[in-house]
Design a protein that fits this description.
The chain has about 140 residues and is of the alpha+beta class. The protein folds into two domains: about 30 residues, no CATH class; about 100 residues, GMP Synthetase, Chain A, domain 3 (2-Layer Sandwich). The chain contains three helices and six strands. The strands form two sheets. It has a three-stranded antiparallel beta sheet with strand order 1-2-3, with no helix packed on it. A hairpin with a 4-residue loop joins β2 and β3. α1 crosses α2. The longest helix has 23 residues. It is elongated, with a radius of gyration of 18 Å.
Length: about 140
Amino acid sequence: MECQVSWLGNGGMAFSAKTGSGHQVTMDGPPEAGGKNSASRPMELILAGTGGCAAFDVVLILQKARQEISACDVQLTAERAETEPKVFTKINLHFTVKGKNLDLSKVERAVKLSHEKYCSATTMLAKTAEITYSIDVLNDE
């Protein structure tokens, strides 16, 4: 895996990242740090990537379990250390899984497997952060 990050210059603190899969993401900082608030912060993208990694696992596991899911959302909330480096110290992932005739135990199992076995992002971040999760299951009518 590789990624190229380039400073966009122009007296700001914006950066462009081109991933190994050929996609681009822009990052920027807040005005008080010299940025122009034109894009997500790098740490926000780490949090977003964590949610994406976990949701990917949950959807894949539920599909393999033949659950008819129609939506999987993850709301992440995080706390960071007050001093440098301002690592994440607490992260909660709240999963809302929606579908037809969902089996609550299978949804719980999928989230647990992601958390304990498959999600590389949460495993890595657990080195500095307490990671918790919660689940809502909504059945389609």
